[in-house]
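ok here's Glutaredoxin domain-containing protein, seq below lol
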Amino acid sequence: MDKLQKMISEKSVVIFSKNSCCMSHTIKTLFLDFGVNPTIYELDEINRGKEIEQALAQLGCSPTVPVVFIGGQLVGGANQVMSLHLNRSLLPMLKRVGALWL
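and the structure came out like this:
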């Protein structure tokens, strides 16, 4: 859990993903299309990816990918991110943490 907290707090936008997950691809593409440069951890490629996935589950993330943190705060998975985007809340959130300069 300490490793997870460190990973989350080091960058303004952090995405936990898996290459095999189509929703992960969709969320990564959304942020990249905005011009955001998120830190992306591919849990199926990194060391201790299973441990990190278990820690995400302990935080209440279900499913465990994709999971997005903005400004060190858990935003949630694809449904939560898309809801924020459709409500026009996502871009202001990204601006607040300095991840977007529009």
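fwiw The first helix runs from residue 2 to 9. kinda neat tbh
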